[in-house]
Amino acid sequence: MAFLRVENKKSGKYLRIIESYRDNSGKTRQRILYSLGKVEDYTPEQLRRIGSKLYELGGGDLKQLLGITITEKARYNYGYYQIFSKAFKNFSLDLISKNIQQKHKLSFDFQNALLLMLIERLHDPCSKRSSYYNQSEYLGIAPVELQHLYRVLDKLSDYNQLIQKQIYQTGRNLFNQKLDVVFYDVTTLYFDSELEVEDSVRQKGFSKDGKIGKTQILFCMLILDIEYLKEILLKGILLSMPLKIYGKITR
């Protein structure tokens, strides 16, 4: 049987792994299997790690030995609420939510329910029913009833334009954006031909008129202002009016 023993010498304390055995005459004797050096050569932390590892290798439960009983019960998301609730206020959506709640005399917390759906959409898009079951994962969100999530959607539909305008104006002022009015339309022109030429504008594709088997082009019109017109064809070929110069579109 092997065991660990500390031997006191004049030069210090030595760690040795000793084995007990019986000789041929039946007498109990001991012999050194391994010498681990002086105790002073190890730090207290190193000695604890060695002892813990030897205990685990022997099949022992270190947590039970040390009386550790802490186990994970749940995980909560803290960052999403902190970040997006602040963004919510920066875009003044909290004021809009408050006005909607007061105007319609809603008995539930409109802003809290809206913020839950927003966080869920950004974190892990899912149904409103799933958002209801996932709400306990977020620290900071007050309990929301499922019916209130659907009621929030009804009100958001009524105030859709107002909310979009508020978000746009806040972003424009924050980044000094300049608004350009752009008019855009698109259609397809098909040909009574099935012949395709590599790298040409005319190719087979999905036609607006349902002519899937015919060759066609995608015709797009982009108007930046009244006096400037660009006609964009399929595969990035640019026709600039009135100069009629062909070239690749650069982004």
Account of the 3D structure:
With 251 residues, the protein is α+β, with helices and mostly antiparallel strands. The protein folds into three domains: 2-66, no CATH class; 79-175, no CATH class; 183-248, no CATH class. The chain has helices at 44-57, 62-66, 79-90, 93-104, 110-123, 128-134, 146-158, 160-175, and strands at residues 2-9, 12-22, 28-38, 183-191, 203-204, 215-225, 228-233, 237-240, 245-248. Strands 4, 5, 6, 7, 8 and 9 form a six-stranded antiparallel beta sheet that branches. A three-stranded antiparallel beta sheet has the order 1-2-3, with no helix packed on it. Helix 3 crosses helix 5 and helix 5 (110-123) crosses helix 7. The longest helix has 16 residues, at 160-175. The chain starts with a strand and ends with a strand.
Query: Percent helix among the residues?
Result: 25-40%
Instruction: Tell me the number of strands.
Output: 9
Distance N to C terminus: 79 Å
Number of H- or I-type helical stretches: 8
Order of helices and strands: EEEHHHHHHHHEEEEEE
List the domain count as a whole number. 3
Percent of residues in beta strands: 25-35%
Gyration radius, to the nearest Å?
38 Å
Q: What is the average per-residue confidence, as pLDDT, rounded to a whole number?
A: 79
Which stretches are low in confidence, meaning pLDDT under 50 for 5 or more residues running? 226-251
Shape: elongated
Instruction: Label the structural class.
Output: alpha+beta
Largest sheet: 6 strands, antiparallel
